Amino acid sequence: MITVQSAIEIILDQIKPLDTERVDILSSLNRVLGETIHSVRPNPPWDNSAMDGYALKTDDIREASPENPVELKVVYDLPAGQAPKRGIVRGEAVRIMTGAPIPDGCDAVVMVEQTEKRSDGSVLIRTHASIGENIRLSGEDFEAGEAVLDEGTLIRPAEIGMLAALGVSNFLAYRRPKVALISTGDELVDINEIPGKGKIFNSNGYALSALVSECGAQPIHLGIARDTKESLREKLVATEGADCIITSGGVSVGDYDFVKDVLQEMGSEMVFWKVAIKPGKPLAFGMIGGKPAFGLPGNPVSARVVFEQFVRPTLFRMAGRQNIFRKTLTACLTKDVKIIPDRMNLIRGELRMERNDFLVTPLEGQGSNLISSMVGANSFVIVPKGSMGFKKGSMVKVQPFDLSMFLGETYDY
Amino acid sequence: MITVQSAIEIILDQIKPLDTERVDILSSLNRVLGETIHSVRPNPPWDNSAMDGYALKTDDIREASPENPVELKVVYDLPAGQAPKRGIVRGEAVRIMTGAPIPDGCDAVVMVEQTEKRSDGSVLIRTHASIGENIRLSGEDFEAGEAVLDEGTLIRPAEIGMLAALGVSNFLAYRRPKVALISTGDELVDINEIPGKGKIFNSNGYALSALVSECGAQPIHLGIARDTKESLREKLVATEGADCIITSGGVSVGDYDFVKDVLQEMGSEMVFWKVAIKPGKPLAFGMIGGKPAFGLPGNPVSARVVFEQFVRPTLFRMAGRQNIFRKTLTACLTKDVKIIPDRMNLIRGELRMERNDFLVTPLEGQGSNLISSMVGANSFVIVPKGSMGFKKGSMVKVQPFDLSMFLGETYDY
After folding, report:
1. Domains of chain B with CATH codes
2. Fewer CB near the last or first residue (10 Å), C or N of chain A?
3. Is the pLDDT of residue B394 over 70?
4. Distance from C-alpha of B367 to C-alpha of B379, rounded to nearest angstrom
């Protein structure tokens, strides 16, 4: 039985980012940039006004104050989106809108609140100004030719704003992994069926599908394989075109557990089977024709634990992401945790933040078949191999798998 | 000018969750449950085996040990998914798979690793067992009729697993808000066009579209309205069918800023205009025919600040969510922050976690037109109204708007 750390190393050793494809900006959120983006023009493209006001010469208003305003002649109006009609000479000003290019000869903008427009076409300026005041300089955001977004950047709303500001409507991004999902077991019925005696619903197929989507990958829902080699083989043939295969169930030691046999028979290079983790020990991992194939345990909680530790980093790496692991936080344990110290234990917990302190409550009912215990949980308390657990009040490592704890009912400024 | 807190109260006072609609489980991730879900049968549905092994009577193996195994007659095999053929009597055992129903007369399961199968159809049991060992009791997860998921629950992968386990393939969820997006300004060109002199690309339309998607809402991209009342009116007419309207640009004090005029003329009940926040002061908010309408500033950074403080909570509430605000964290400031104390300031920052301490670095270039400063940022440092800023080393409130900081390049257990 290998350690969790070794299993991660062995798996990721096999995994490379997928190829890139051209994507439209509107469908690129949470994908990873597959090329470095250079700006073709500076931003701002020209010196422009940071305010609605009057573009003028600072020399003309050196003595201006509320008591002694200076009168200037307004030679034209310059809305944003238009080029200046001409430069100005002494005694002149241009009525200018935020974002409009600064006309030649102007070296500052006075905001409209410090001026008074007069009916004769002139304006009273009630303040002096320093050179460059309220002028945004060309290139102060970035220069032409600058590498503004690097290959490998995760595309968040800010990056989408940047790409649009550059006029980049489509670009290369890493392909989203297509993930084939197969649930195995004669005890399973689909959620649209009526379960007979001895049958339960295929919940893993749906939970895994949601997890795959949450990773930004594309689930391919292949349904249930029966406990026959033929049925499983048929489903595995249907995974052609997928980049990754996930089965759940059928990897324990029993007579009816033959997923690993069929995987091997289909040309899978079995890499390992069984990891020192609880829950989740009977994890099978192999490569089928260069694609990673995970045989997850059938227990819903075990499947989730294994997904978070091994499958999520795999899918993130395939999608070109660099930060692929969930970080752990240190939290104060609110109840004793006692375990058998044979392997790393992941205890479902409810993590919460009080001011800046993290507290974690291990949840009752840690049986790996208890679906309800996942509903209340948002994290795993990590109990390393060899530890017998922790006393209430200990500071422990916690791996959050759901960050909705960072949202609250009230604002807190 | 009203405070940020008042603006939030005033806006949310107008906002109710949208109605509910029936959704398929496969498209329900991150939506909010619009009904309470009761279980129709207990889970597990029947007492079942937690292991692959032998179901038997504990009385029969009271004296069993590795040195003195007890021999039992294996009367049949019971795979998961099948009903027991019959109960057992003393001296008998059933070969049972994980998840299979416990046959009548059995009161424990001994795992296969502690047994030895013999060619004559019997099995040697090498351990004693206590009553109930390796048996999962019917209803230990939840009972029939129990309210297992409450109306208002956010649907994460765990909830999808639960719904599938209950056989619930579709259910009521709150409708996703449809959000019409209009960028205003003669200076704007679409990203597929070539900008002439004085023109810039419409970046807000795309960044806002990504933000709306990230909230789980549906953006309706209406493009650019020109700086004429007719053009804006035309775009606003096209927002019919949307649940919320967002414009950007055109809400400052200048002559060409008439968004608020047109909004008013279209029957909008203007609620306020201008909030004591920097950047983001010129925010207009009104209701048009019962729909919230936000007039966001045109500067990309201001638009983002205002979106996070006012629009996100609105869209979350419309989608039925209860936790609608981003929580703040307390972090140690790595550089001085100096500001003019007239309104609440939100300073872009880079928040990171070192062990359990949060550190935040305010970013250079805080001009609200600097798109590049959003790319490096993941949070806002909150400087309350009246404060002149903070010294390096101060503990400050930080509002993260991007949680990818909780992912890392390496595992850390």
Report:
1. 4-17+176-318 (3.40.980.10), 20-43+144-174 (3.90.105.10), 48-136 (2.170.190.11), 329-406 (2.40.340.10)
2. N
3. yes
4. 16
Location of structure tokens 């079942």: B48
**Among B residues 304-363, those touching chain A with beta carbons less than 8 Å apart:** 304, 309, 313, 316, 321-330, 344, 353, 355-356, 358
Q: Mind telling me how many Å the CA of A175 is from chain B's nearest CA? A: 19
φ/ψ of B5, rounded to 5, equals: -60, -45
CB contact under 8 A, A168 and B185: no
- Torsion B78-B80-B83-B88 (CA) sign: positive
What ipTM, to 2 d.p.?
A: 0.93
What parts of chain A have a pLDDT lower than 70? 251-257, 366
- Asked if residue A193 lies in contact with residue A202, where contact means CB atoms within 8 angstroms, the answer is no
Per-residue pLDDT, B253: 54
pLDDT tens-place string over residues A150-182: 999 999 999 999 999 999 999 999 999 999 999
For residue A215, the model assigns a pLDDT of 97
* Cα–Cα dist B314/B302, whole Å: 17
Q: What does the alpha-carbon distance between residue B300 and residue A106 come to, in Å, rounded to a whole number?
A: 26
Residues of chain A numbered 275-314 and touching chain B (CB < 8 Å): 298, 300, 304, 309, 313
Distances (CA, A) of B137 to A195, B50, B78, B102, B107: 19, 10, 18, 10, 11
**B136 with A369: Cβ contact below 8 A:** yes
Mean pLDDT, residues B59-63 taken together: 96
Judging by beta carbons within 10 Å of its beta carbon (0-12, 13-18, 19+), is residue B209 exposed, middle or buried?
buried
**Average model confidence (pLDDT) across chain B:** 93
| pTM of the model as a whole | 0.93
Q: What pLDDT shows up at residue B177?
A: 98
- Shortest CB distance from A210 goes to which of B81, B160, B403? B160
Give the DSSP per-residue string, B131-162: TTTTEEPTTSSB-TT-EEE-TT-B--HHHHHH
- For A51-93, write each residue's pLDDT tens digit: 899 999 999 999 999 999 999 999 999 988 899 999 999 999 9
Put simply, the chain B residues between 363 and 392 with a CB less than 8 A from any chain A CB are 365, 367, 369-375, 377, 382, 384
Compute and round to an integer the Cα radius of gyration of chain B. Answer: 31
Chain A CB contacts of B408 below 8 Å: 323, 325-327
- Matching residue, tokens 């470095």: A36
Q: Is A150 exposed, middle or buried (0-12, 13-18, 19+ CB in 10 A)?
A: exposed
> Which of A193, A378, A203, A210 minimizes the C-alpha distance to B163?
A203
